[in-house]
């Protein structure tokens, strides 16, 4: 059975159960939240071993082929372009649709929210390289260590023969383990969707977020069905761009209902390799890069959310110069959220409100009931961007083996 069908079945079962379950019961909600967190932890479990060994081998192979820098440059360009494009799309969408104002029903001082840029930089090179394996949320230190390991093997290939053979064996074992966990996550999708529906019903109970929800869903639909297929057709030429959308169904489901980048990454690895035929040496580099730095979903949701906040507080709208400031700060913040795989969009929104000032420091609190939904849409767009970007990069480097649709997992 296709993975996306398993995930969709889990989601539908969870939704059906949530609609008849006593969602207002505090004990029930607490149990569901615990099970959802357990499902996310389960989905993350197999990520680190595979990323380390696959990243190391990919760096070695790409350095041998003298394409490592080219790959990094192309991936960086794709991340920057898609983030700018999505942020502009969000700005235009919210200005054109003009969603209704959200009642200001939140009182009190703003909470202390920090992106943690300083801590992120400090954690890149811990006191011991082995500490990179200990941080289960931030994969960039692990990728740096793996990169040094791969580069070290390329310096002395004779001495590294045994190491490379061991790494190649271990990455295959790690991939097999990851395959098992990706399949079993379908069961966890039940708990995730129940928890999601409970939050969604609570959010809609106030009837204040209807326009906001439809706007974010429209942006997600427009990006997946129109914008990205057009980009793929333009860059890659002939071929059906909706094959990539089909391959991204399972990752998008996992991302939307979990809101977690690290849980989604193993699902992305499997579909990039087994469905789209992207060579491991490409996807092992590009997918972690997109997971860490490529957060266009955050940029677009932060842009839309902040303008909705401004319109809720004032009917004057946002001045033209402030639009450029908002685009710039939303884009920049999306690049530094790698340490926050879950809830990064709402944290970035709080940071934008704090930086904007002018009495809007606590403005993000009016969207707190919708924080989970903002994160869901952001994560789904990020997952779609990662697999689309990896496919485009693989095509440009002739590292994609085209497979028939019936063989997609």
Strand content: under 5%
The count of helical stretches stands at: 16
Give the integer mean of the pLDDT values. 87
CATH class: Mainly Alpha
**How would you sum up the major sheet?**
none
Unreliable stretches covering 5 or more consecutive residues: none
N-to-C SSE series? HHHHHHHHHHHHHHHH
Shape estimate? globular
Helix content: over 70%
Total strands: 0
- How many angstroms does the end-to-end distance come to? 8 Å
Which fold name is given in CATH as the topology?
Proton glutamate symport protein
CATH homologous superfamily - what is it? Sodium:dicarboxylate symporter
* Oligomer class: single chain
Number of domains: 1
- Architecture in CATH? Orthogonal Bundle
Overall radius of gyration? 21 Å
**Helix-strand makeup class:** mainly alpha
Write a concise synopsis of the structure shown.
The protein is mostly helical and about 400 residues long. It has helices spanning about 5-20, 25-45, 45-65, 70-95, 115-120, 140-155, 160-205, 210-235, 240-245, 250-260, 260-275, 280-295, 295-315, 320-335, 345-355, 370-395.
Could you walk me through the main structural features you see in this protein, from its secondary elements to its overall organization?
This protein is mainly α and 409 residues long. It has a single domain (3-407), classed as Proton glutamate symport protein. The chain contains 16 helices and no strands. It has helices spanning 3-20, 26-44, 47-64, 68-97, 117-122, 140-155, 161-205, 210-236, 242-247, 249-258, 261-274, 280-293, 296-313, 320-334, 344-356, 371-396. α14 (320-334) crosses α15 (344-356).
């Amino acid at each position: 059975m296709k993975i996306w069908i398993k995930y969709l079945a889990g989601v539908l079962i969870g939704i059906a159960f949530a609609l008849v379950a006593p969602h207002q019961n505090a004990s029930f909600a607490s149990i569901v939240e615990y099970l959802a967190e357990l499902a996310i932890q389960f989905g993350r479990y197999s990520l680190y071993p595979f990323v380390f060994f696959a990243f190391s081998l990919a760096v070695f192979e790409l350095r041998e082929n003298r394409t490592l820098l080219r790959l990094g440059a192309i991936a960086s360009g794709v991340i920057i372009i898609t983030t700018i494009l999505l942020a502009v799309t969000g700005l235009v969408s919210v200005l054109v649709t003009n969603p209704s104002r959200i009642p200001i029903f939140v009182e009190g001082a703003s909470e202390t929210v920090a992106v943690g840029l300083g801590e992120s930089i400090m954690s890149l090179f811990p006191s011991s390289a082995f500490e990179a394996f200990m941080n289960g949320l931030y994969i960039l230190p692990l990728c740096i260590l793996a990169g040094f390991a791969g580069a070290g093997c390329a310096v002395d290939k004779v001495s590294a023969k045994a190491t490379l053979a061991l790494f190649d064996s271990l990455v295959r074992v790690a991939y097999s383990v990851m395959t098992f966990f990706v399949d079993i996550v379908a069961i966890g999708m039940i708990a995730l969707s129940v928890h999601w529906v409970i939050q969604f019903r609570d959010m809609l109970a106030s009837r204040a977020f209807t326009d906001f929800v439809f706007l974010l869903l429209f942006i997600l639909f427009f990006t997946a069905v129109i914008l990205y297929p057009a980009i793929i057709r333009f860059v890659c030429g002939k071929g059906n761009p909706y094959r990539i959308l089909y391959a991204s169904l399972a990752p998008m489901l996992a991302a939307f209902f979990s809101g977690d980048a690290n849980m989604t990454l193993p699902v992305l690895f499997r579909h990039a390799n087994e469905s789209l035929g992207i060579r491991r040496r490409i996807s092992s580099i590009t997918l972690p890069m997109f997971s860490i730095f490529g957060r266009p979903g955050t940029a677009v949701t932060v842009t839309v959310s902040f303008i909705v906040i401004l319109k809720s507080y004032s009917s004057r709208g946002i001045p033209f110069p402030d639009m450029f400031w908002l685009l710039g700060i939303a884009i920049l913040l999306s690049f530094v959220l790698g340490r926050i795989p879950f809830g990064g969009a709402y944290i970035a929104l709080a940071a934008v409100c704090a930086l904007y000032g002018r009495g809007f420091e606590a403005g993000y609190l009016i969207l707190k009931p919708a924080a989970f939904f903002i994160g869901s849409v952001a994560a789904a767009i990020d997952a779609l961007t990662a697999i689309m970007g990896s496919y485009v990069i693989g095509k440009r480097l002739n590292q994609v083996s085209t497979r028939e649709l019936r063989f997609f997992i």
